């Protein structure tokens, strides 16, 4: 059922049709502001899973809401204009906080479905940036706490390279891996869009931020335990969501999920080993 | 003598072009007794004299160059003096001088810019004293102030670092400058209505408290004292940036716009604190 239909007209025109109108209230929808020439693609709701238009995001099967794009992508301007990216930042504070909360508790693999109509890039980018800053700062703080002056190094100094390497690692991971996964998913004709994958991966990193605060504790076992717990949560979140999309489209879905899990665990390992390992002899 | 030359220059602006004007300045300074009107009116406008013109002002105005770069401007928005004399009323941003700024002494140009930077700092960072409405956009914005503050902060942090001085400078400069751009884009993408360069300007001026904090921390190495100084300067920076940004976005997204600013200032504050 298209949303841009004046229900009252329909009720008047079609005599005896069973258009459900609740009680005496007449549901009246706004007239569509788009010309008929633009009602292509997503607006018709005829999208079969696996087909995607020139735009990055595809609505999932049965999704009638055309999403924030609201029309032909060309109406939004070229790829090099700010307007093109505005729909991907169409979130309020409560939305972002709700999504972060969802990523902390990965019991059901429906994060992508819940946010399919409005995937945002604000969360991934700023969670990534926060993570870079937090790991660099707290990694240096951890070395400060465990510093013992030796002959070679009488004073503690901070390592600025943590910032640059950290940004390469995290931005690279969040930027490239969803792209590769997108190509793999398209190969297997799974219905998921690139921006939705970026959104998913970005929010999956949110769990790592609190645990970097806990990683300052100078007990190695505690650090490993905390990082392992966070990795588990984050990977579970990712795996459940990816599995939900690829499960029915191919035989080899477990290979894809396994690759995703392995890469994510590798990221957690790098995070622990590079940022929170200190080379001292005691404890 | 110089004052009389300036007033007669204004009178001649209509009839002569700038090259003639400079020639007369030069010749009048060499032969002070000849009044300007007695010079032959139909001087040939000789193109070969054009290449000589640039060295002449440089020889006349031989003040030592201050650290602020006058000739290059990476941000593309310069004060009126470094724009070639395409129009007599050179277009500054905000207030435009009504006379040609080509013939004024370099000190006047610099003083105008310094005063503008000072007044902008006063407006942005001390809104309670200056009586400016917090949240009102900076009217007379410029980019010299932000450039100076970013470079100063990067230099301070780099000079007090013991390892990787050049990397520290590069990282701080890149983080601050690209951070300002990214923060502005963030506000624009969230649906805020701001002017790009004006926002860059405000975010740059809000670095002033951190600059002051970094300068103070250069002198003392007591960690507790530095923590207090860094906390105070970072709170001050965020407090001065907050009204501008929060008034630009719809209220449901205020935290989304303000949080990244806070993140940037905390990151820089951490660097100031961690310096030894």
Detailed description of the structure:
The complex is a heterodimer of chains A (283) and B (276). Chain A is mainly α. Chain A folds into 2 domains: 42-84, no CATH class; 91-275, no CATH class. In chain A, 52% of the residues lie in helices and 0% in strands. Chain A has helices at 7-13, 82-85, 93-104, 111-114, 122-145, 161-187, 194-204, 208-214, 220-246, 253-275. The longest helix of chain A has 27 residues, at 161-187. The radius of gyration of chain A is 24 Å and the shape is globular. The termini of chain A are far apart. Residues 36-55 and 58-72 of chain A have low confidence and may be disordered. Chain B is mainly alpha-helical and 276 residues long. Chain B has a domain at 141-274. Helices cover 59% and strands 0% of the residues of chain B. Chain B contains 11 helices and no strands. Chain B has helices at 2-12, 18-30, 55-60, 106-125, 127-130, 144-159, 165-189, 196-205, 208-219, 223-246, 254-274. Chain B is globular and about 65 Å long. Mean pLDDT of chain B is 76; it is low at 49-91. The A-B interface holds A 82, 85-86, 88-94, 96, 122, 126, 129-130, 133, 137, 140, 144, 155-161, 163-164 and B 161-164, 167-168, 171, 175, 185-186, 188-191, 252-256, 259-260, 263, 266-267, 270-271, 274-276. Chain B: Belongs to the YIP1 family. Chain B: Keywords: Membrane, Transmembrane, Transmembrane helix. Chain B: One of its GO terms (biological process) is endoplasmic reticulum to Golgi vesicle-mediated transport.
Layout of helices and strands:
The complex is a heterodimer of chains A (283) and B (276).
Chain A: H1 7-13, H2 82-85, H3 93-104, H4 111-114, H5 122-145, H6 161-187, H7 194-204, H8 208-214, H9 220-246, H10 253-275
Helix pairs in contact in A: 5-6, 5-7, 5-8, 6-7, 6-10, 8-9, 9-10
Chain B: H1 2-12, H2 18-30, H3 55-60, H4 106-125, H5 127-130, H6 144-159, H7 165-189, H8 196-205, H9 208-219, H10 223-246, H11 254-274
């Amino acid at each position: 059922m298209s949303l841009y239909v004046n229900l009252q007209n329909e009720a008047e025109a079609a005599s005896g049709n069973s258009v459900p109108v609740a009680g005496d209230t007449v549901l009246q929808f706004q007239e569509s502001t788009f010309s008929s020439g633009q009602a292509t693609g997503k607006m018709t709701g005829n999208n079969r899973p696996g087909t995607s238009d020139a735009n990055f995001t595809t609505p999932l099967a049965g999704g009638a809401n055309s999403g924030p794009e609201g029309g032909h992508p060309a109406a939004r301007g070229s790829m090099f204009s700010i307007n093109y990216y505005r729909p991907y930042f169409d979130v309020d504070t409560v939305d972002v906080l709700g999504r972060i909360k969802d990523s902390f508790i990965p019991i059901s693999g429906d994060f992508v479905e819940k946010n399919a109509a409005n995937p945002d890039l604000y969360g991934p980018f700023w969670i990534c940036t926060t993570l870079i800053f937090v790991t660099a700062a707290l990694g240096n703080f951890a070395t400060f706490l465990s510093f013992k002056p030796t002959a070679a190094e009488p004073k503690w100094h901070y390592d600025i390279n943590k910032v640059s390497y950290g940004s390469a690692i995290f931005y690279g991971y969040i930027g490239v891996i969803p792209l590769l996964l997108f190509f793999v998913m398209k190969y297997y004709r799974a219905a998921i869009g690139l921006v939705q994958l970026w959104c998913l991966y970005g929010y999956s990193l949110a769990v790592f931020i609190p645990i970097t605060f806990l990683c300052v504790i100078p007990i190695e076992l505690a650090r490993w335990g905390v990082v392992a717990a966070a990795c588990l949560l984050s990977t579970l979140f990712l795996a459940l969501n990816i599995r939900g999309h690829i499960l029915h489209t191919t035989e080899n879905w477990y290979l894809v999920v396994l690759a995703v899990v392995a890469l994510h665990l590798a990221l957690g390992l790098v995070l622990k080993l590079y940022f929170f390992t200190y080379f001292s002899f005691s404890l | 003598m110089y004052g009389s030359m300036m007033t007669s220059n204004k009178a001649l602006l209509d009839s002569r072009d700038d090259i003639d004007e400079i020639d007369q300045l030069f010749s009048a300074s060499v032969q002070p007794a000849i009044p300007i009107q007695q010079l032959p009116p139909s001087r040939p406008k000789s193109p070969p004299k054009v290449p000589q013109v640039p060295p002449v002002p440089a020889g006349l105005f031989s003040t030592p160059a201050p650290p602020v770069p006058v000739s290059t401007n990476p941000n593309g928005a310069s004060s009126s003096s470094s724009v070639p004399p395409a129009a007599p009323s050179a277009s500054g941003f905000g207030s435009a001088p009504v006379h040609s700024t080509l013939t004024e002494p370099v000190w006047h140009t610099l003083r105008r810019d310094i005063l503008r930077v000072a007044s902008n700092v006063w407006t942005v960072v001390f809104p309670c004293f200056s009586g400016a409405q917090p949240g009102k956009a900076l009217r007379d914005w410029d980019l010299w102030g932000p450039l100076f503050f970013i470079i100063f902060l990067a230099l301070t942090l780099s000079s007090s670092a013991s390892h990787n001085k050049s990397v520290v400078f590069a990282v701080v400069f890149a983080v601050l400058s690209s951070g300002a751009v990214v923060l502005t884009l963030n506000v624009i993408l969230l649906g805020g209505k701001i002017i790009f360069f004006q926002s860059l300007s405000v975010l740059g001026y809000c670095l002033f408290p951190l600059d002051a904090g970094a300068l103070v921390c250069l002198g003392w190495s007591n960690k507790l004292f530095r923590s207090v100084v860094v906390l105070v300067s970072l709170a001050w920076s965020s407090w001065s940036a907050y009204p501008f940004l929060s008034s630009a976005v719809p209220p449901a997204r205020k935290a989304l716009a303000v949080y990244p600013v806070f993140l940037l200032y905390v990151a820089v504050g951490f660097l100031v604190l961690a310096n030894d």
